[in-house]
Amino acid sequence: MSGETFYKMCGSGNDFVFLDGRETDVSRWPADRIRRTCARATGVGADGLVILAPGSSPGAVRFHFYNADGSRGEMCGNGALCATRLSAHLQLADPGEVCLETDAGLVRGRVDPGGGPRAELSLPDVGRVAAPQIDREPGEEAAGFALVGVPHIVVPVEDVDAVDLGIRGRELRSHPGAGAAGANVNFVARSDQGWAMRTYERGVEGETLACGTGAVACATILAGRGITRLPWSVRSRAGSILTVSGSLGADGRLHDPRLSGEARLVFMGVLGPDA
Are residues 81 and 113 in the same domain? Predict the structure, then answer.
């Protein structure tokens, strides 16, 4: 069967359609085609679509990320973890040092040397930004705001399961204080199994089962308030563990942040002529 080969990957609950940029081109993927491919009922189904192409220098990989609604995304943590492992699998880069050129800057990754389906990222320093004035709902603590390639609102809560994400997440996603493009919204709380988080993602416009950059944002806010210490682990909605480490500076910035998590190649397929 003729068509374009795709790779379905999962990162702690976030799922993605990946394409080899040596066999396709960004120009062949307008927003409507991305939406059709990412559609759950009528396409492959995914939170986003990624095209990996040779970067600007030997061993570098250009990371083109698109949300499920077809919009361009600057960065995606779990997408970058998956990109690290797939880049090595496709021999675009060495598994010990994958240099991803993202719209949010350079991200370095490496594949789990033990051969497991995990990867680790080294990210640019994370800055805490003055949070928009958000009126608290019952069970919520004061919100925080961090930039991890993309903007994140972090809301510590008493119980993540009690949050009506479809209402509260959508409301905060477009909060005027978050800027014209809005922000991802993360609700985080202690649970019987440690820390747990839920995320409402812009571009998906609903809850996703994980968020890598959201985990980094939560760690930055919680550690900055003295609520937790680094390294910090959190359970995604899918049940997988994301771990954030780094050094919190006196300026509130998270220096040398690192994110480790799942990067699992689920299956390969071929897009049909109507895709």
Answer: yes
Among this protein's residues, is 82 annotated catalytic?
A: no
Residue 213, domain extent? 127-260
Do both 131 and 242 map to the same domain?
yes
- Is pLDDT at 11 greater than 80 in this prediction? yes
The string of pLDDT tens digits covering residues 155-174 is: 999 999 999 999 999 999 99
Catalytic residue among 76, 82, 99, 218: 76
**174 three-class SS:** coil
As a whole number, mean pLDDT of residues 239-243 equals: 97
Looking up residue 168, the CATH number of its domain turns out to be: 3.10.310.10
Count of domains for the chain: 2
Residue 273 φ/ψ, nearest 5 degrees = -65, -20
Lowest pLDDT segment from 21-30, 220-229, 247-256: 247-256
Annotated active-site residue in 10, 38, 82, 211:
211
Half-sphere exposure of 155 (CA within 13 A, CB side): 29
